[in-house]
Amino acid sequence: MIIIIGKTVKQSEINLRNLMEPIHSNIAGNVHGGEIMKLMDNAAGVVAARHSGRNVVTARVDKVEFHYPIHISNLVTFNAKLSFVGNSSMEVFVKVLVEDFAKEDSAKVAATAFFTMVALDENGKPAAVPPLEITNDEERRLFEEGRERYLNNKKK
Fold this sequence. Notes:
alpha+beta, Thiol Ester Dehydrase, Chain A, five-stranded antiparallel sheet, 2 helices, 7 strands, elongated
């Protein structure tokens, strides 16, 4: 008999922080959106690898939204957590928060996106991942929304 043990959202959730530097900027002095997407992808990859215990690749990015500009010298936090888990795929919700030290404001949501990551075996083929254990209503809501996106994407 094989017993499959799931993992909770908290077991793989991460917060990565970066101070934005001039190398990250576009000609207007804002942080380039592509740089933020790259860092979001890195955060999603860490979450998926922690959950699966395997190498992972990005299969899809859904609903990338930029809400607030990010500037040089801003502190940016990438909060990433699982929202849905399939057989070999994992959807990771990434929220980007920005803090401006000069204004002493509280952090603002700068960007959000859903990344679909796929776990790979030693031969580069999709590999099974542990199920996701839901522990609260917010996780259940994200899971149901993630399942809906997963099913809609499979139809395409």
